[in-house]
Design a protein that fits this description.
The complex is a heterodimer.
Chain A (H helix, E strand, L loop, with lengths): L2 E4 L3 E4 L4 E5 L11 H9 L7 E7 L7 E7 L5 E6 L8
Antiparallel strand pairs in A: 1-2, 3-4, 4-5, 5-6
Chain B lengths: L6 H9 L16 E7 L3 H14 L4 E4 L15 E2 L6 H21 L10 E5 L2 H16 L5 E4 H7 L15 E5 L3 E2 L2 H14 L3 E3 L4 E6 L5 E6 L2 E10 L5 H8 L5 E11 L9 E4 L4 E5 L5 E11 L7 H14 L8 E12 L5 E4 L5 E5 L9 H14 L13 H4 L14
Parallel strand pairs in B: 1-2, 1-11, 2-8, 4-13, 11-18
Antiparallel strand pairs in B: 3-7, 4-6, 5-6, 9-10, 10-11, 12-15, 12-16, 13-14, 14-15, 17-18
Helix pairs in contact in B: 2-6, 2-9, 3-9
Classes of the chains: A mainly beta, B alpha/beta.
């Protein structure tokens, strides 16, 4: 079971949270090609390693935040608020 | 084939013990093949077998990072079924189920197919309506289906709590009699033995480090931990590892890898002779031939390459199972594990060419790859042998994500995935 440090509430157990998929996905402009639109809709980063993703403290404060997690070890590398830059940006 | 398995062969072996031969033998990889298949799970091994048996191609190797059948093929809950909604899927999965029905004979290997039926429970009026729609779709597609009343469900599954006070009341069921279970390891071993006897090389402990590219940018082989292997065509059948391999070849796939967990209880005497699936609790339950209660639930809903399941999700699965079958609350849990599944947005597979020439992929089976092994192998072999999509696999190519022609089976199995 993951333990996640909510930026507002502190350390809580996994069942309190919902997963929101990878972070930092940018919606393309209206001039996008079909292939570009398909990529935006369906292709997500799926690394075997560190993935930056959005989580929500659904059964707590209800806030969304960003989290960087290793998809093999599940080690949480970084947690930062929505709108904040990741340390490697 | 070295020796044919039969009752007579069994009797002979019993009378003169010690004369057994391995079902297939380990190979050193050659430096060149017509076709190399990356991934020695059910789909990869079946592809190799059908390349040889349907297309006469024998200069073929299956290369596997670990050991054959050690990934999702050895980690699923062994269910086979074809209760899908859309005609494209129904054709695909029923072809697979029909192949399973004769597979033991075709491979001369007992895959222990048991068509014990699969019953989807209705817990609400809305479930009853959805089931009626599914049953109609199945009948239209020529697939057996029956709608059961609450009393029929209760008489077929006496262990189930159908009382008025049940946390998840049972109002009826949707049954597919031809569905059931098969021995998952036997499917891998049976295909491996049959493929090997037709001249296919099976190479274990051989991980792909990169793809060799020719002058035109197309793939002309693989670079592995056991050396370079040249190939005219390369096929990837690697489930949850698909995007990692695609990245090595220089393209992306619309796939996310998740852990899907399953677990078994301690073995008990036979008490459940069908597969029970409950959408509301998100659980599958069946009983293995050893007597263990085999249980599976929803995905662990975050991207994962760790072959283990979250305790939080496991608790939900067990809670769901016990609310349906209170008597099972007394059992001890024996084992819990997970496989890494390749989930696509429309929960339909990808059997397709790729942006890289001479490189083909069979993936996206998500939480239901085991039942599809025969058809996955059959259609992927056709694609690798001819370069053209098999009629059954035509709708399941990568182009569908750009054209918008998705085959949205996401809700068809009755479990959110």
């Amino acid at each position: 079971m993951l333990q996640i440090e909510c930026p507002w509430c502190g350390l809580r157990d996994e069942p309190e949270f919902s997963y929101g998929g990878p972070s930092h996905v940018t919606r393309p402009t209206q001039e996008v090609s079909d292939a570009g639109w398909a990529e935006y809709l369906f292709t997500r980063a799926n690394p075997k390693g560190v993935l930056r993703e959005r989580w929500r403290h659904t059964f707590g404060c209800g806030q969304w935040f960003n989290l960087a997690r290793d998809t093999v070890t599940h080690r949480i590398v970084e947690i930062y608020r929505m709108g904040d830059a990741s340390s490697d940006e | 084939m070295k020796s044919r398995y039969s009752a007579l062969a069994l009797l002979k072996a019993a009378m003169f013990p010690g004369g057994g031969t391995p079902a297939w033998t380990e190979c050193e990889p050659k430096t060149r093949y017509d076709i190399v298949i990356v991934g020695g799970g059910g789909h990869g091994l079946a592809t190799a077998y059908y390349l040889a048996s349907n297309h006469g191609l024998r200069n073929v190797a299956v290369i596997e990072r670990g050991w054959i059948g050690g990934g999702n093929t050895g980690r699923n809950t062994t269910v086979v079924r074809s209760n899908y909604l859309y005609p494209e899927s129904a054709r695909l999965y029923d072809f697979s189920l029909k192949r399973y029905e004769t597979l033991g004979r075709d491979l001369n290997f007992n895959i222990m197919l048991s068509q014990r039926g699969l019953m989807l429970l209705a817990h609400s009026r809305h479930d009853l309506e959805t089931h009626a729609r599914s049953a109609n779709a199945m009948w239209m597609n020529g697939i057996d289906a029956e709608l059961l009343s609450r009393e029929e469900v209760a008489s077929r599954v006496p262990l189930l709590d159908v009382s008025a006070g049940a946390r998840f009341p049972v109002l009826g069921g949707l049954n597919q009699r031809r569905a059931g279970t098969a021995r998952h390891d036997a499917v891998a071993w049976g295909y491996a033995r049959a493929a090997h006897s037709l001249g296919i090389d099976i190479v274990q402990n051989c991980e792909v480090k990169g793809f060799l590219k020719g002058g035109n940018g197309g793939v002309c082989g693989v670079d592995t931990t056991r050396g370079r292997i040249a190939a005219e065509r390369v096929g990837i059948a690697a489930a949850g590892q698909s995007t990692v391999l695609a990245a090595l070849a220089g393209f992306q796939l619309p796939i996310t890898s998740y852990a899907l967990q399953a677990m078994v209880s301690e073995p008990v005497k036979p008490c459940l002779d069908t597969v029970v699936l409950s959408g509301a609790t998100g659980t599958y339950v069946s009983q293995s031939d050893k007597g263990e209660m085999v249980m599976r639930g929803a995905l662990d809903f975050y991207a994962s390459y760790a072959q283990r399941g979250s305790i939080a999700v496991g608790q939900n699965v067990i809670g769901g199972v016990i609310s349906l079958f209170p008597a099972l609350g007394h059992l001890a849990l024996l084992r819990q594990w997970a496989g890494i599944v390749d989930v696509v947005h429309d929960s339909s597979p990808i059997i397709s060419g790729t942006p890289v020439e001479n490189l083909y992929i069979n993936c996206g089976w998500g939480t239901g790859g085991f039942k599809a092994i025969p058809v996955g192998g059959w259609t992927f072999a056709h694609l690798l042998a001819t370069g053209a999509s098999h009629e059954l696999a035509e709708p399941f190519q990568l182009q569908r994500f750009t054209s918008g022609r998705l085959i949205d089976e996401a809700a068809a199995s009755g479990i959110a995935h």
